[in-house]
Amino acid sequence: MTDEKESFNKGIAVRFAPSPTGPFHIGSVRTALYNFLFARKNGGKFLLRIEDTDKERSTKEFEENIFDSLKWLGLDWDDKDHLLRQSERTAVYTQKIHELIEKGAAYISKESEGKNKEVIRFKNPGGKIKFQDLIRGEVEMDVSDLEDFIIARNINEPVYHLTVVVDDMESEITHIIRGEDHISNTPRHILILEALGGSRPIYAHLPLVLAPDRSKLSKRKHGESVSLNFYKNAGYLPEAIINFLAMVGWNPGTDQEIFTINELIKDFDIKKVQKKGGIFNIEKLDWLNREHILKQSKNLQIERLKGEILKTKFKDYEKVGDPEFLDKFLVIILDRIHRWGEVSEILEAGEFDHLFIDKPELNKEIIHWKKSTPEKARENLEKVVQIFNEEKTLEIIWTKIEKLAEERGKGDVLWPLRYALSGREKSPDPFTLIKIKGVKASISSILSAIEKLS
Ligand code: GLU
């Protein structure tokens, strides 16, 4: 067995090799992440390769989506000028197929089925193939059943098993970190690699990312929620997605749950990746996302908040440009959300209309507290207006309102006040509302409530 330390010294290179045949799958994102972490931790290269041999299903749009997503996530890859795109490398593969045929390791086979089809088959020596896997330990598989497997549909149309080996050799990949769904392909790759005279990389087959019911995360069953775009559009932060995916299938062996990418690079250990499938638990993602939102700088938070408001019916309201309002609204909203996308959802649902609309619509029947009377509510609101008119600072105004509430009953004073300010049965407390609305708008809301009751 190759000593791992030894191979580290010869210059680590890993690759992430997605096929651009659909929206970037969340399981592939994790494969990219583990490759990235492993490379950065060991001072190696993290290469990207586009496996677009399936011409019908591969598109430029999906390819662009992979580039954009990796950049958005901060998983920047190396050697950008030497990106391998398999659709552009047919000549290289054809030459390797010839080489294999010349060596007697492969042959052209006339297929009895189909019209005079000639495929290229690898001459399978049979027997057992053993390899070391960083996660699963020693793996042994019998290749006899594979018979002489196909490596190209014709001399110019190689299949994945050939292209992957040729490219990994050319890029001098030292560690192949990929999904467990490829483990059954590995013996074939080893056979081809050895026939081409390549040296064997170290393998690490990652357990799958599973849904909470332990089923495979598939588009058919789980819809858009299997793609990264879904989370990006819902307002999750890239750093939270990274933190979350790192821990689907790996943990540092300590209590630490919140990690920055640099902390992950420091602590990540591919050997601690578990063998069984990792669960994609959205509650955990929500929790982590909230933690990362709270870690963002205030400037970034304000920018994000503003961006969210601009997506809503309040986009043209003056308040969006008022730094003081945004500061105060931020405090309230941070108490509520797990992801930024929730802000526009909450605003569209009308829950914070009162903060944007100075005079909310009021329902006369509920201005007074249910255990009291409209008359009392009116009297108390008039007293509140008086306090506003007599005092200058918010602190004193509030102290006096509190005193009034003590004397005349909390429900009798604070319910009508809160409702007058918000127009809602549930809202933040009246003091918070006054702080956000400001004195002028607060007085005018209270006066409209009094008018309604008269
Ligand atoms: N193109 C393959 C996939 O998207 C990955 C192949 C590999 O990593 O060897 O599943």
From TrEMBL:
| Source organism | Candidatus Zambryskibacteria bacterium RIFCSPLOWO2_01_FULL_39_39
Q: Which domain of life is it from?
A: Bacteria
> Domain named Aminoacyl-tRNA synthetase class I anticodon-binding: which ranges?
321-446
Name of the gene: gltX
**Species lineage:** Bacteria, Candidatus Zambryskiibacteriota
User: GO terms for biological process?
Assistant: glutamyl-tRNA aminoacylation
For molecular function, the Gene Ontology terms on record are:
ATP binding; glutamate-tRNA ligase activity; tRNA binding; zinc ion binding
Where the record annotates domain Glutamyl/glutaminyl-tRNA synthetase class Ib catalytic, the positions are 110-287
- InterPro entries the UniProt entry points to: aa-tRNA-synth_I_cd-bd, aa-tRNA-synth_I_codon-bd_sub2, aa_tRNA-synth_I_cd-bd_sf, Glu-tRNA-ligase_bac/mito, Glu/Gln-tRNA-synth, Glu/Gln-tRNA-synth_Ib_cat-dom, GluQ/Sye, GluRS_core
The reaction(s) annotated as catalysed by this protein in its Swiss-Prot or TrEMBL entry are: tRNA(Glu) + L-glutamate + ATP = L-glutamyl-tRNA(Glu) + AMP + diphosphate
Q: Where in the cell is it found?
A: Cytoplasm
User: Which function does this protein serve?
Assistant: Catalyzes the attachment of glutamate to tRNA(Glu) in a two-step reaction: glutamate is first activated by ATP to form Glu-AMP and then transferred to the acceptor end of tRNA(Glu).
Span of the annotated motif 'KMSKS' region: 216-220
Q: Which UniProt keywords apply?
A: Aminoacyl-tRNA synthetase, ATP-binding, Cytoplasm, Ligase, Nucleotide-binding, Protein biosynthesis
Please tell me whether the keyword Signal is annotated for this protein: no
The entry's ATP-binding residues are: 219
Residue interval(s) of motif 'HIGH' region: 18-28
Q: Which residues form a coiled coil?
A: none
CC per GO annotation: cytosol
Q: Tell me what this protein is called.
A: Glutamate--tRNA ligase
What EC number(s) does its UniProt record assign? 6.1.1.17
Family designation: Belongs to the class-I aminoacyl-tRNA synthetase family. Glutamate--tRNA ligase type 1 subfamily.
